[in-house]
# Entry
Amino acid sequence: MEILRVVDPAQGIVSFRCEIGTATGRWKGSTPANEGFYDVEFEIPEEVQEWEEPAPGVPAISEIGEDVRVTGEVLGVGEEDDHVVELRTGTDILLIEIPDAGRRARLKPHDVISFRSPEIWLYPYQL
# Structure
């Protein structure tokens, strides 16, 4: 992932691009963000309430207004009290929380969904 620009250093807001798209996110590293290349883990900090089937050709990560749109293939769906849904976004796996058990149960492996989040968090790590 490449940080293209530090938009708001005090809040850790950065503009980034990676193999699956371009968006703005919140840097969660222990040191301030700088332009450059990083290995990061993505996190969606909010529960996902709504999603839709994406249009063909939609990138896995993009911006829609002030929201981040995430598109991925469902790999696994938590049962009963397990709110976690596993999504493949490019070569990465993203875990999201969907609290509505009825809606979550309608998701099946290989479904492709797209949802909006007000924010995506970027956690850098060392290989």
Remarks:
- The first strand starts at residue 2 and ends at 8.
- Residues 2-125 form one domain.
- The radius of gyration is 15 Å.
